[in-house]
UniProtKB/TrEMBL annotation:
InterPro entries: PAS, PAS-like_dom_sf, PAS_fold_3. Signal peptide: none annotated. It comes from Magnetospirillum fulvum MGU-K5. It comes from the Bacteria. Pfam families: PAS_3. This is Chemotaxis sensory transducer. CDD domains: PAS. Residues 31-113 form the PAS fold-3 domain.
Amino acid sequence: MPNAIRLTGIEKFFDEDSVIVTKTDQRGVITYANKTFLEVSEYFEKDVVGKPHNMIRHPDMPHCIFRKMWSRIKSGKEIFAYVVNRTKLGNHYWVLAHVTPSFNTEQQIVGFHSNRRVPDRTSLTEVIVPLYQKLSALEREVPDLDTGITVADSYLRKMLQEKGIGYDQFIFSI
Ligand SMILES: Cc1cc2nc3c(=O)[nH]c(=O)nc-3n(C[C@H](O)[C@H](O)[C@H](O)COP(=O)(O)O)c2cc1C
């Protein structure tokens, strides 16, 4: 269970020049993790390869962001998203993730991969953290998760509509 580990509240940081990389199969099971991922997430390769990617899910991440991610990548498109992940010891680290499908020569999706870099600190503290808190609160307000995700997603859409920009523009504007 991803959320069974006790959270320490301690944030981990990684080098501005480093890229955290993982690859998954079509269901999101990890097939590759680079050295930086293993160092930051405090796992050994054998702990992660063959495991679902939600093993590092942090409870502060709104469900609606992952729903958007899966909807995008399954339809063959890329997405950028701010993500907080949990480490093996219950610490956490923030990334700006780029998640994209991998195609074979017939242009069929054969898996996915993600490259993650150090996120902009001001964007995180001033925009993303309060936004994710709001989205998570909306998701928890109703008894069933599916409705909660729809409510949170509508809030995000309305916020973007009021700004007159799409999700991608929003991510790059902050
Ligand atoms: C290539 C790829 C990379 C992913 N990276 C992460 C990640 O770093 N952290 C994370 O929590 N979920 C990541 N996910 C999404 C997870 O598969 C999952 O949807 C998410 O953790 C939510 O889990 P849940 O549906 O059990 O709540 C990734 C998925 C893919 C395909």
